[in-house]
Design goal:
Elements: H1 2-18, E1 22-30, E2 42-49, E3 52-60, E4 66-72, E5 78-86, E6 89-92, E7 96-97, E8 104-111, E9 114-115, E10 121-133, E11 136-147, E12 152-153, E13 167-170, E14 176-182, E15 189-191, E16 195-198, E17 205-216, E18 223-227, E19 232-240, E20 245-247, E21 254-257, E22 263-272, E23 277-283, H2 292-313
Length: 325
Amino acid sequence: MRQLAVLTVLLASTSRATEPAAKLTVQVVNSTRNGASIAGDEVVLQLYQGQKQIDSRQAKVGSEGQVVFEEVPTGPQMAAVATTKHQNMAFRSPPVLLRPTGGEFSARVQVFDVSTDTSKLSVGVHHIMVAVRSNALEFTEYLQLNNTSDLAVIGAERDEQNRPVVVRIKLPTGFRDLTTTGYLEPEALVNTGDGFYDTMAVPPGEHQVTFSYKLDIDRGAPQIVKGITLPTAELLVFWEHGQGQLEGLGEPAGRLVNAEGVPIEYHRRSGLTPGQNVTFRISGLNVKRSDAQTWIVLAVTFAALVLVAVLRLRPRATKAGPPHA
């Protein structure tokens, strides 16, 4: 068996060696207006076979904004990712498939100058969806994180390990089982006990942030305090009516219906500022497993409401000129 394993490795290596080598050009572009020079920035090229990294190479960006890597291996499962470090922040290219055709490949890395001015960060639409799952409340949050500048915002605050504290998210006391998808990268997050913060710079544009967590139902009527850390245009709290009662947010702004005909109510808050709290409590809980179809319906509804909210929040054109981007 050992001889067979060695033979398999040798055959795989031989097969990889017979594939034609290629040239890969990495083009680095600074998208900040009048940004700093990228000449001399370091580019790291990571080579993967399937999910496994098999090699890493480094080079400096030339005066024309390019780095050329020669003799790059190709193959059916080969791929490359280029990372450029600019002003002490890392920016990555999309993966490049290195098909076994030889010739030339290219990768593009978009970088930005780095700013510590967090005043350019805000939240457009923020949705909090609350469901009863077994003996716990499950929260799923969706928010549109906006950076209106043409700089990568990192913030001036540093933690005890000298990592930047870029975006703080406050969560209800006692939260557990935090999971993230999409924009947030788990290795860049730090749990603080009352929430978490992200240590990665926020690039320009709009970013869809999604995360979920649970809160145990152990006694009484749970009170939820949601702290606001960034200016927020609009926050909606969704609650499945009939699985208890949500109190403290006044009359609902509207209602939806799930696949079983159970109404879902939602509450709206607008123009929230950092330091504010949105507080509500849930009483009369009938603890049982919530209908999963509810959240499938709400996921679709969320997308529709986001579109409506974005259109509503978009500045209107004036006689003086076109609307802002």
